[in-house]
Each structure stands twice: as C-alpha cells, then as structure tokens.
C-alpha cells in the first residue's frame, strides 16, 4: 500500500487550483522530518501525469488530483439532499464568505421574494413606473445564509444587482460591480469588518464610469479588482475604493469587435495568468492584456466551432497551476459538445478539442477540493437569460451547495418549474461514507492560517485507523505557499488535505 499526501489550495475567487508539491521542499522537509517525532515520513508525490478526467464527471472519483491512481474505488455516484425547503430569496448570485456564510442576492425588479424584512428593517421606497406612484418594497432581495444552521438573515439590496459581478477583496469584503436599471453603475460592498453579525450592503450608485450589466470582474496580483465589459460597455475600469468614484474607463477594442447581433461577448471569461497578465476570452476570440500598461500583449487563435458565452453556452475554469512548471492551463466546456483547451503560456498555443459526454448549456464548472472538475446543472437544449441558471458553490465540508433557478419574471409558486428558493447539497463521490476512514481531519488550532508568499507553512491533521502506523497519530506537513501573488492574489482561500482522493473539511487560510 502506498500513501501519499498532497495539498491542494482551493481558490474560491478564481476557480483555480494550485498544487503545491511537497516534493520540491525535499531538503527542508527531510531535516524537519528527522528532527521531530510527530513527523512521519511522507513519500514524494508521483509526477503529475494526467491530472484530470478529460471528459465530464469521472465516476471513479477516488482519484487523487494527479499521479498514481488511489488504491480504493467507489461505486458511490453522489447524493442529493435538501438543506432548506424555503430559504426566501432565489439565489441568482452568491458568494461564499470566509465566515462560512453564503451571501445570496437576486434581482430587485419583481419587488417580490419569499422573505419579508423583519421588524426593525425599513422597507425600500421606489417609484413604480407602471402605476406612476411612489411605493415601498418590503421584500428582501438579498440574504445571508449560514452553512452551519441553514438559517437565513434578510439583507437590504436597494439598487438592482441583476447580472452584476462580484468577488472578495484581500480583507474579505465582498465587492460587487454593476447590475441593471438603477444598479448599472453601482459599486457595492459587504462585510470585511470584524463583527459581521449585523452587516448589511453598503451601496454607492453611479460610482462606476460605465454601465456594467453582464461584466466580469477579476482580482489582480495587487489585490485590486478590474471590471471588464458588460452590455455595450467596450471598456474596463478598476473597482473604486469605498465611497470614491472609479477613475476612468479604458477602451478595449476587442470587446467592440467581439460583440455581434447575439451579444456574444457578455460576461467575458477572464483569468489571471501566471505572468500577471489577464487572459480574456469573448465570443470565439481571446487575448492577453497587461492591465497596468493598458496593452494587449498577445492574441490567441480563434476558437473554432461557434461562439461561447457565459452562462448561455459556455463555462470556463482554470486547470491546476503547478509552481515548478509555472504553467497555466485553460479549459472551456462550451454549449456545444466539444470542449476547448488552451495552454495560455505556450509560445505557440493551439486549441485542443475534446468531446463531452453530452452537449450542455447553462451549466456550472467547479474545481473540487480533490483537484477534479465537476460539471453540474445545465440543460441539454435551449438557452435563456441568466434567470434560469442556478448557482453552485463548493463549501468547506466538500459538498456542493446548489440553489436558485427562476424561469419567470416574478416569484411563481404554481408552475411546472416554480421559482426555486430551496437549497440543496450535492455530495460528490469522494464523500462516499465507506472510505470515511481515509478522510483526514485538519487540526485547525495547530495549523498555520496566516500564509506569506513563498514561505513554508505547517498544517496538522489526523488520520483515523487507516493502518497501525498512523492510528490516532497527528501528522504534520510542511508546504510552501504560492511563491507570488500572480498565482494566488492576496486574500482568503480554503485549504484541503487530500488523502487518496478523499478530501478533509476545508480550513480557511489567508495569504498576503
Ligand atoms: C423538506 O421537505 C420535505 C418534504 O416535505 C421533507 O421531507 C424534508 O424533511 C424537508 N427538509 C428540510 C431540511 O426541512
Ligand atoms: C450566447 O450563445 C448562444 C449560443 O452560442 C447564442 O444562442 C446566444 O444568443 C448568445 N448570446 C446571449 C446573450 O445569450
Ligand atoms: C468567430 O465569430 C465571429 C462573430 O460571431 C464569426 O463571424 C466568425 O466566423 C467566427 N470565426 C470562426 C473561425 O468560427
């Protein structure tokens, strides 16, 4: 029997997995291993040969993120459960927060939800265009969902965040740009304070320079956010400091060139490359932008086979970055049946095309704690606005949190597809109850949670009666944090210990 351990950093903001190879710290670690009794000798990690199943969901998910196949197999194909039958707000957009709550927000346009503001929270005044009169909106369009209890707390959303974009800043503040109607130029902030028991949205309308409906925002190595594109917005700008206006928009011809009658350049796919430049994909074209110099560094070959746009027809995620290779890969799993893969750091990049098991639209592509990619949701036929879409998020216990979906322009109860306010969880095959003995448990109290770039950090974990040697022993592993913020911008990340494909519960760490 061989045992090997691997640390996978699960980057919630970028959907990017970084594999820190313990092997590379061979020298350091060996000396540490000898000098400390709690350290057990951990064999080096086998070479990354074929890290991921290349098509859809691999049933034998009992495979570690790479290298040698694990020595246990599972027949468990996953399981669904309902966490909450009536959460109140349909989850059009969500963000997992470092305090293990999920911030949920929906459009305000229906002036309706299934969650009323409780006493003490004022209703929101608005002008009803149809009735031509001033009215009060007493329904919450946002809520805080606590994962531990599955309970919700109403939040006040005033300007419409419909198809806005968002992300966490290094200090854990959720910042959201744009939306619809009165919200197109709003800069929103939530949390980031010490005690967030009573946090609510802080909205600043008209602080963005251009209307950002269906724009994409991405965190940069310096911790700032860039906001790119949107409907008829052929530019990018930088997310302003709270209360300040954004400085100026930068015209990006590419966004104009990739728009067409179907507006196939909405929600462009943007990923930070390991060289600090931004990979931007829209429609069927892509380029590398230096956001600081406002310069297009290079362009990539056109992706054949039709236009891709999120969420109507495409999904995109970054494959793992291994520090020693410093290589970033990119994968698209489009509306169509084929799936393009591009090495964006290759000097002569070309699209590799693979077939998915089924054609799929409006799905979600998630990086799992064990390094696999999961395709979830979606339909096999037809597209619609982002209203139909549900939202998904891998949560610290390794399950996938799933909520939302609304095919109506209101909250509808009686229909073949009523407005969805239930919250469900999907347990991927790695949560098979049988190999639970293989599941490591991180000892949070004696693990490092504050990481510094390029520095070693220690994680302590327990393994249950796996074999005599490890029984009830604590194991410590020393790993190296990402060397540079280009690989993992500053902020909060979930870290998992993965043992033979079975991940522990995630622990939040912070890197700066
Ligand atoms: C949700 O409703 C179903 C059917 O009424 C019930 O069996 C289940 O226990 C409920 N779940 C929760 C978490 O309330
Ligand atoms: C997105 O792509 C699909 C399929 O390629 C296309 O039908 C649709 O019109 C596109 N645009 C939008 C805004 O959905
Ligand atoms: C790329 O998309 C544009 C605009 O939709 C289209 O005119 C062009 O033919 C496409 N190119 C390829 C190679 O598919």
Automatic annotation (TrEMBL):
Gene3D superfamilies per the UniProt record, alphabetical: Galactose oxidase/kelch, beta-propeller (2.130.10.80), Immunoglobulins (2.60.40.10)
PANTHER family: ALDEHYDE OXIDASE GLOX1, SECRETED PROTEIN-RELATED
Domain Glyoxal oxidase N-terminal: 92-323, 327-385, 387-430
Transport is among the record's keywords: no
UniProt entry tagged with the keyword Signal: yes
Signal peptide as annotated in the record: 1-20
Residue ranges of every copy of the Galactose oxidase-like Early set domain listed in the record: 455-511
Protein species of origin: Sphenostylis stenocarpa
InterPro entries linked: Gal_Oxase/kelch_b-propeller, Gal_Oxidase_central_sf, Glyoxal_oxidase_N, GO-like_E_set, Ig-like_fold, Ig_E-set
Keywords recorded for this protein, A-Z: Signal
Protein's recorded name: Galactose oxidase
């Amino acid at each position: 029997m061989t045992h090997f351990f691997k640390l996978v950093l699960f980057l919630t903001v970028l959907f990017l997995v970084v594999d820190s190879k313990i092997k590379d710290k061979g020298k350091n670690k060996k000396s540490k291993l000898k000098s400390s009794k709690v350290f057990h000798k951990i064999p080096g990690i086998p070479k990354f040969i074929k890290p991921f199943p290349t098509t859809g969901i691999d049933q034998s998910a009992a495979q570690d993120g790479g290298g040698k196949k694990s020595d246990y197999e599972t027949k468990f194909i996953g399981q669904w459960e309902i966490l909450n039958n009536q959460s109140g707000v349909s989850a059009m957009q969500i963000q997992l927060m470092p305090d293990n709550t999920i911030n949920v927000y929906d459009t305000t346009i229906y002036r309706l939800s299934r969650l009323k503001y409780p006493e003490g929270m004022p209703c929101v005044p608005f002008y009803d265009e149809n009735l031509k009169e001033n009215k009060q909106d007493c329904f919450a369009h946002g809520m805080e969902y606590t994962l531990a209890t599955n309970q919700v707390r109403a939040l006040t959303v005033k300007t419409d965040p419909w198809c806005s974009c968002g992300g966490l800043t290094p200090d854990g503040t959720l910042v959201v740009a744009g939306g619809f109607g009165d919200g197109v130029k709003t800069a929103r902030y939530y949390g980031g304070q010490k005690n967030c028991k009573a946090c609510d949205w802080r909205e600043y309308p008209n602080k963005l320079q251009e209307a950002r409906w269906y724009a994409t925002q991405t965190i940069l190595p310096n911790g700032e956010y860039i906001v790119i594109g949107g409907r008829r917005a052929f530019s990018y700008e930088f997310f302003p400091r709270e209360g300040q206006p954004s400085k100026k928009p930068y015209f990006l011809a590419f966004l104009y060139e990739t728009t067409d009658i179907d507006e196939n350049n909405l929600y462009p796919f943007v990923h930070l490359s390991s060289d600090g430049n931004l990979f931007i994909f829209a429609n069927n074209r892509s380029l590398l932008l230096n956001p600081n110099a406002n310069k297009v560094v290079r362009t990539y070959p056109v992706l054949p086979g039709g236009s891709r746009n999120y969420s109507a027809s495409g999904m995109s995620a970054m494959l793992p970055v291994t520090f020693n290779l410093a290589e970033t890969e990119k994968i698209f799993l489009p509306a169509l049946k084929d799936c393009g893969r591009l090495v964006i750091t290759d000097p002569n990049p070309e699209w590799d095309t693979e077939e998915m098991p089924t054609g799929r639209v409006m799905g979600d592509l998630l990086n799992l704690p064990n390094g696999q990619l999961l395709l979830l949701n979606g339909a096999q036929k037809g597209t619609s606005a982002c209203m139909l879409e549900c939202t998904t998020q891998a949560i610290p216990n390794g399950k996938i949190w799933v909520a939302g979906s609304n095919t109506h322009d209101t909250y509808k109860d009686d229909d073949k597809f009523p407005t969805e306010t239930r919250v469900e969880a999907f347990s991927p095959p790695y949560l098979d109850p049988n190999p639970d003995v293989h599941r490591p448990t991180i000892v949070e109290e004696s693990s490092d949670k504050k990481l510094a770039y390029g520095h070693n950090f220690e994680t302590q974990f327990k393994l249950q009666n796996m074999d005599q040697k490890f029984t009830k022993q604590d194991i410590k592993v020393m790993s190296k944090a990402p060397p540079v913020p280009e690989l993992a911008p500053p902020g909060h990340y979930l870290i998992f210990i993965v043992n033979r494909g079975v991940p522990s519960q995630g622990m939040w760490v912070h890197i700066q």
